[in-house]
Design brief:
It is a single chain. By secondary structure, this protein is mainly α. The protein has one domain. Helix content is 93%, strand content 0%. It contains one helix and no strands.
């Protein structure tokens, strides 16, 4: 009888451990699934953040290029105006010099 009780208790303990193992396995599976979901969400967020940062950098780069182009255009316009003024001044001096050299009272 004593052996029967020992065997019965051993079987009960074994079944309890097996049930506990099954529950532990299910919990582990849930944990892995949850971790995979979290990792996927984090990766998706990282990709979205990277795309947003790239877009912002492109916008900033375009703004900087536009500003530099505007500055270069203004400098070119100023240089052209200065060159035009100097050419006009030189032409006026040349005309005056030609007039002086070809005046009838000089010959």
């Amino acid at each position: 009888m004593r052996k029967t009780w020992i065997i019965a208790l051993s079987l009960s303990a074994g079944l309890a451990l097996a049930a506990c193992s099954q529950q532990t396995q299910e919990n582990a599976d849930k944990t892995v699934d949850s971790a995979a979901t979290d990792a996927g969400a984090a990766a998706s967020n990282a990709v979205g953040d990277a795309a947003q940062a790239a877009g912002k950098a492109a916008d900033q780069g375009a703004t900087a290029i536009s500003a530099a182009a505007d500055k270069a255009a203004a400098a070119a316009e100023k240089a052209a105006d200065t060159a035009g003024d100097k050419i006009e001044e030189g032409a006026t001096k040349a005309k005056a010099r030609i007039h002086e050299e070809t005046a009838p009272d000089k010959h």
